Amino acid sequence: MPHCNHHTHCLAQALDHAETLCRSHGARLTPLRRRVFELVCASHSAVKAYDLIDRLSTEDHLVKPPTVYRALDFLLEHGLIHRVDSLNAFVGCTSVHNPSDVRLLICTACGEVSELIDPTLDVSMTLAIRTSGFQASHTHLEIHGLCAHCQHTTTQENATP
Ligand SMILES: [Zn+2]
Ligand SMILES: [Zn+2]
Questions:
Q1: What is the DSSP secondary structure assignment for residue 120, as one 8-state letter?
Q2: Which ligand places an atom closest to the C-alpha of 80?
Q3: Domain boundaries, the chain
């Protein structure tokens, strides 16, 4: 999700989106699934599964990892979160798009993960792979660099003597 100044508002919107999407898929956003989604969306950077397990567990109630992984699988399946392979973590998704049409842009300074959605991105790569005779099962392309916000901050820092 992009940088925003009204995070509570954008979190509420994300939850609305999740409810609507699940309803349209005939799926149930159980309290745990909802809570996991909320925790993933609470930050604009990628969240690791063990952090979620940590945050969901209280002193007298330990949440079992398989329970969290099942909730994550549900959210992945319904396109509510994306797996960030290079970070072994997850990010929330509040747009509706084909899973293969998205590339993740990962800021190495602030950790923000944003989406680059373009259905034409894959066309020449798919063609090149097919020409080489290789049969691809899935492609992951994650781009690491600096987000617009951090580029600006770095430039400012460099400008001060
Ligand atoms: Zn997405
Ligand atoms: Zn950044």
A1: T
A2: 1
A3: 7-159
Q: What residues have their beta carbon closer than 5 A to ion ligand 1?
A: 93, 102, 115
Report phi then psi at 64, rounded to 5.
-75, 135
User: Both tokens of residue 107?
Assistant: 């800021």
The counts of H helices and E strands in the chain are: 6, 5
* Environment of ion ligand 2 (residues, CB < 5 A): 107, 109-110, 112, 147, 150
Please answer whether residues 147 and 155 qualify as being in contact, where contact means their C-beta atoms are separated by less than 8 angstroms.
no
Class of domain 7-159: mainly alpha
> What pLDDT tens digit does each residue of the chain (161 aa) get?
455 555 677 888 999 999 999 999 999 999 999 999 999 998 889 999 999 999 999 878 889 999 999 999 999 999 999 999 999 999 999 888 887 788 999 999 999 999 998 878 778 888 899 999 999 887 778 999 999 999 988 666 666 55
Note the pTM of the prediction, 2 decimals: 0.83
How many whole angstroms from 81 Cα to the centroid of ligand 1? 7
